[in-house]
Design goal:
Elements: E1 3-8, E2 13-19, E3 22-27, E4 31-35, E5 39-43, E6 48-53, E7 60-64, E8 68-72, E9 78-83, E10 92-94, E11 100-104, E12 107-111, E13 117-121, E14 128-131, E15 137-150, E16 158-171, E17 177-182, E18 187-192, E19 199-204, E20 214-216, E21 222-225, E22 231-235, E23 248-250, E24 258-263, E25 269-274, E26 279-283, E27 289-293, E28 300-305, E29 311-316, E30 320-325
Antiparallel strand pairs: 1-30, 2-3, 3-4, 4-5, 6-7, 7-8, 8-9, 10-11, 11-12, 12-13, 14-15, 15-16, 16-17, 17-18, 18-19, 20-21, 21-22, 22-23, 24-25, 25-26, 26-27, 28-29, 29-30
Length: about 325
């Protein structure tokens, strides 16, 4: 049985992340808790709405009720990227070359490393943003689809239309696919064909609840999702992705919903967090399960692996967080 080092934090903890081997926990109140030779606390926001790991740098990005977009370093240093008083920032994304994007109403903003800020306007409110794995290209999710923009060029916008509200967005690691979370209990995907400029639809339905967590496997062969009493894992290794294929269901527990999923950084192993605070590890190859943490006080809100894959940090809405050492 892996060992669990608990960390109790007052209130709702929004996210857990690793920067190197340092676990970091972000609270809804706006405090950042680091376990670095003891617990160290930094104030980042007056009310935090989102905190993500920047996939292009060893930092975190956060947005809050105070209208700030912040960059948080492994030593707890907080630097302000943008500040718009009286505007809530709940959507942030990290991009290549130090770029940072955030949404505010019907606009996406991208700040480049030289300080230039580009604004991209939409007809509907922007609900989520993601950077493509290569190049300064963003996907802005909104009502009835996604808009693809090349930042800083005059290239025409590409519209990916699908009726309904799209509340989250992610590119596959190779950039061939784009997948959104929807307000209805479904995912929707597009196969992006750069040669013809066309895109093909992928419908991923059948969830009993809204999908709020997605995670790609290390080489992008699998996309894991929450929103069911098992982790729903879609195959993306074929040229048409999951079209015509059924997903795997891992870690099934009767009537106990999965709230978070997180793939191991080096192996095809999935961490699954549940609404009752339990955390399971499941191997893709054979479905073998390992209990990583027994049920706790609240739903799992965040899962994050260390770079080595030996440690797994988890956060919960009740504040009972911790770090699991699976190396033993």
């Amino acid at each position: 049985m892996p060992t669990v080092a608990p960390l109790d934090i007052d209130g709702h903890v929004v996210a857990a992340h690793f920067l190197g081997d340092i676990p970091i926990f972000a609270t809804a109140a706006g405090t950042i808790h680091r376990l670095d030779g003891g617990e160290k606390v930094t104030d980042a926001h007056h009310g935090l709405l989102t905190c993500i790991r920047d996939p292009f740098s060893a930092t975190l990005l956060s947005g809050g009720e105070d209208g700030r977009v912040q960059r948080i370093s492994h030593d707890g240093t907080v630097s302000t990227i943008s500040e718009t008083p009286r505007k809530w920032i709940s959507v942030v994304a990290g991009g290549p070359q130090g770029a940072v994007a955030w949404a505010q109403g019907k606009s996406s903003f991208v700040k480049l490393s030289d300080g230039t800020v580009k604004e991209v306007k939409e007809e509907r409110s922007v609900e989520a943003i993601a950077f493509a794995p290569k190049g300064l290209r963003i996907a802005a999710a909104r009502y009835n689809g996604v808009s693809l923009h090349w930042v800083g060029t005059n290239s025409p916008m590409q519209d990916l239309d699908w009726k309904g509200a799209h509340t989250g967005v992610t590119f596959s690691p190779d950039g061939r696919f784009l997948v959104t979370m929807m307000q209805e209990n479904a995912l929707h995907g597009w196969k992006l064909d750069s040669k013809s400029g066309e895109s093909r639809h992928m419908r991923m339905t059948g969830y009993p609840a809204k999908v709020k967590s997605l995670s790609w496997s290390v080489k992008g062969k699998w996309l894991a999702s929450s929103g069911a009493p098992a982790a729903i894992v879609w195959p993306f290794s074929a040229k048409d992705g999951p079209m015509g294929k059924a997903p795997m269901e891992l870690g099934t527990r009767a009537n106990i919903m999965v709230t978070q999923v997180g793939f191991h950084p080096l192996e095809e192993v999935l961490a699954i967090g549940f609404i009752d605070g339990m955390v399971l590890g499941v191997r893709i190859a054979d479905g073998k399960e390992a209990l990583l943490r027994r049920p706790g006080k609240g739903a799992i809100t965040g899962l994050s692996w260390s770079a080595s894959g030996k440690l797994l940090a988890f956060s919960s809405e009740a504040g009972d967080c911790g770090v699991i050492d699976i190396s033993g």
